[in-house]
Amino acid sequence: MALTQEEIQNLNRQFKGIPPEEIISWAINHGKKPVVTTNFRPYEVAILHAVTEVDKSIPVIWCDTGYNTPQTYKHAEELIARLGLNVKLYVPKQTSSHRDAVMGIPQIHDPLHQEFTEQVKLEPFRRAMEEHKPDVWFTNLRKGQTAHRDSLDVLSMSKDGVLKVSPFYHWSDTQLDAYLKERQLPNEHKYFDPTKVLANRECGLHT
After folding, report:
1. Average pLDDT of span 61-74
2. Which pLDDT belongs to residue 202?
3. What is the pLDDT of residue 187?
4. Residue 149 above 60 pLDDT?
5. In which band, very low, low, confident or very high, does the pLDDT at 160 lie, cut at 50, 70 and 90?
6. Helix axes 44-54, 173-183, angle to 10 degrees
7. What pTM was computed for the model?
8. How high is the mean pLDDT of the chain?
9. Do residues 36 and 47 lie in contact, with contact meaning Cβ atoms separated by under 8 Å?
10. 3-state SS of the chain?
11. Would the pLDDT of 17 be above 90?
12. Edge-to-edge strands of the sheet including 163-165?
């Protein structure tokens, strides 16, 4: 979806305080090939529920690193079944067992960490985006998660020119907890991202 930076800024001012479902409906009506990405981390159920309430058939791109916790995999299966998600699964080209034998999970200062992140997250994500070629990309980015995300807003443009839509951008954990409770949606906090090490680091998908 082609929007100028000025148009995005104007829309962000309008969208502040607007219910997520209205933002999602606007984006789907104005876009041609929307997708939503997920890794089933905590609170992902909110964006998955909100988007599929508007468009049940939207492709749900799941780039599974292969290092998720058993709790995350069970949570994912529950949400896939309950919400009827149209999941498009992308995994690394090398199994986690093979990688564990030759590389392991490198620490953040290890020169191999960049290659590890490329293998388990960036390459599968690029492959997914190249295959689906979306013009609208729904995410659950929120203000306060990282310094970089604080510089974004409800709408932002990816480096590849895809309109990123984060309907819950201004929401707090407390507000999301209430959203989930009201709709009796499950959440799961035992989540592990091997590429981040620290919770406030970016993995590279949104930078």
Report:
1. 96
2. 40
3. 97
4. no
5. confident
6. 50
7. 0.90
8. 91
9. yes
10. CCCCHHHHHHHHHHHCCCCHHHHHHHHHHHCCCEEEEECCCCCHHHHHHHHHHHCCCCEEEEECCCCCCHHHHHHHHHHHHHHCCEEEEECCCCCHHHHHHHCCCCCCCCCHHHHHHHHHHHHHHHHHHHHHCCCEEECCCCCCCCHHHHCCCCEEECCCCCEEECCCCCCCHHHHHHHHHHHCCCCCCCCCCCCCCCCCCCCCCCC
11. no
12. 86-90, 59-63, 34-38, 136-138, 163-165, 155-157
Q: Which single residue is written with the structure tokens 């009201």? A: 182
Lookup result for tokens 């499950």: 186
Residue 46 one-letter amino acid: A
Backbone angles phi, psi at 202, to 5 degrees: -90, 150
Q: CB of 201 within 8 A of CB of 112?
A: no
Amino acid symbol at 148:
H
207: pLDDT strictly greater than 50: no
